[in-house]
Every structure is written in C-alpha cells, then in structure tokens.
Specification:
single chain, binds oxa(dethia)-CoA
Amino acid sequence: MSSIITSIGICHPAKEIKNSYFEDFLDTSDQWIRERTGIERRFFALENEFTSDLCVGAVQSLSENYNKELGDIDFVIVATTTPDQTVPSVASQVQNKLNIKQAGCIDISAACGGFVYGIILAKGLIAAKTHRKVLVIGAETLSKVTDFSDRSSCILFGDGAGAVIVEASEHNGIFNALTDTDGSYGKELYLSNRALYLNDEKIVADNKLHQNGRVVFKWAVSTLVKKIRELLSVNNTDLQDIDFLIPHSANIRILEAVCKELDFPIDRCMESIRQYGNTSAASIPIAWYNGIKNGKIKPKDNLLLIGFGGGMTCAGICLRNEIDIR
Ligand code: UT7
C-alpha cells in the first residue's frame, strides 16, 4: 500500500522572545545572534504550557486544511526531545486530548531528526497494511531544558510544533528514505538527568541541553552534503528534480554552506530558523508549512526533507507535496 501526506499544521507559543532579551543577562548582542545563526526571534512556552499543548495546537491548525475525519486516525507518533514527562507518552496525551479512539501511540527520541523518522515509520505502517491514517508530530518545548548561563547555546532554541497526516493512497507520494547515526558523537549534544557517563566520559546530568557547537556545525555540514547525495541516489534522481530542500533549521550558516557545496539555490531551501529559532523536531514541518503558506511550495512540488541532530543521527526522505493551504 502506498501513502501520501494530506495535510499539515503548526503551532507556537504566544510568548515572543527577541534577541535583545538575552542582552539583559548575557554578554551577547542582537547583531552577533543574527550574523552567526540567522535567528531574529523565537517563542517560549509559558510555565504551564507543555509539548502536548503545542501538539494539540498543531493538529487544530492542520484541521483547517483537512476536510475529513480526524477520529479515524489509527496511530499517533510524536517526535520530541522534551516530552511533558517520561511516562505517559506525549502521543497518548494527544490521543486523549483530541479524543481519537483506538489509536496506537508512541513517542520517538531522535532529536532534530525525529520528524523525518516519524514519516518513515508512518510510511512503513501503511505499507505493512496494519494502519491507514497516521498522525506524525514533531514538537518541542526546548526553553524548559535550556541552560540560560551558556551564551553559545541558549540563544539558539525555540518552542513549537508541526503535524502532518500520512494516509494510505492508491498513488505514491512518499518515496525512498535513508537513516544513519554515529553514536560516537553522543556527548557532543546531549540532555541527561541520569547517565553520568557518555562515550566513556563523565557528563553533566542536569536536565539541560549541552552542545559542542563547533563540532556539531562541522559534522552537520559534511553529513548533510553526503547524505543528500546518497538520498538522491537511492531515489534514482538528482538535485535538478528537487523543487525544495527542507533540512533541519539549526543555523542559517549550515544551510548556506550545504547549498553552496551542492550548488543548490538558497532561495529554494526552506528554513524556520529566522522566525522560530532552532525548534529541533518541529523545525522541518514549520518550514514546510510556511513555504506553502507564502506561496513558494505548490502542489506536486518535489521535496527533500533531511533532519539531523543529537545522537548524532540523521534521516532523510523524498516526497511530493500534495498540500495547498493558501
Ligand atoms: O539542532 C541540532 C544541531 N545543532 C547545530 O547544528 C548547531 C551547530 N552549531 C552552531 O550553530 C554554532 O556553532 C553556534 C551558533 C552554536 C556557535 O557559533 P560559532 O560561530 O560556531 O561560534 P564559536 O563557538 O566558534 O565561537 C566564536 C566566538 C567565541 O569567542 P572567542 O573564543 O572567539 O573569543 C565565543 O565565545 O563567539 C563567542 N560566542 C558568542 N559571542 C556573543 C559564542 N556565543 C556567543 C553569543 N554572543 N551568544
């Protein structure tokens, strides 16, 4: 059985945080943040606002461009690094809040690669003919695990969510995927409140995100270039056939370096970093949604999605955009 993606929605908290916010308590500046990351603003959840709330908001946004039932969703996948709690899963809370009966529910932990992993799993469930309509959400409240004393990381992260529906279909709109991981980079980007050792090194277990920015930056550029080429090859296609690249939005300079290396026009690379910061698992659907909303991405456009992040892990997939929400 083939599958297509039939709708998309996004959500962010109302509280907007401009770069100047950080100038009050850190040695940083709006200029440094814009020049080194591209970020102009991001949104932070309120104290009583959690990842599951943003998931529900993204599904409500999705329902505005989906004129069919949501009640027959038979599987819910939430990709997140920042679940409300470890158990129960965010997916099960979303199922309950949306009153979706009899759905399988799981959270997946693949950091900024999580949304693409979710689509790959949904495609597999539908291909196996065990499920027909899968809700895939990438959602984060990273502000809750940000170390606000670390100027190199705290200026990066934002909160948000993006949701899609993957459905069984007569014609195929989701093509080949690839996944890869290099666990030896684990300690370069981690969030822990338990393990004291990672890759045989003692780490800080304080439930805050820690990142070796320079190492991750270099890994990201070289991995993205290599994996995008591999993904094109497993799809027996080339970059000329791709209308839009949607890589995880971690830093505008990563996207610029990748497009330069691949000789791909930067205006056909969708990003969400400038207006939302790095929203990890939510960054790809947010960029995709806004690309459609602002009239750039049109129905039948070929997209290449590629996520990468803590693990270090990477996942990419080629698909056809079927959605029009203007
Ligand atoms: O989403 C998961 C994957 N994550 C990523 O892909 C993130 C990848 N890494 C990055 O985006 C970048 O490495 C950062 C944005 C984290 C840092 O940018 P950078 O250009 O790599 O800066 P740097 O770490 O090389 O630091 C350059 C200088 C340093 O000062 P010195 O040592 O040259 O005097 C830093 O202390 O910039 C300083 N610096 C800052 N200055 C002002 C670091 N953060 C700040 C800041 N404001 N916020």
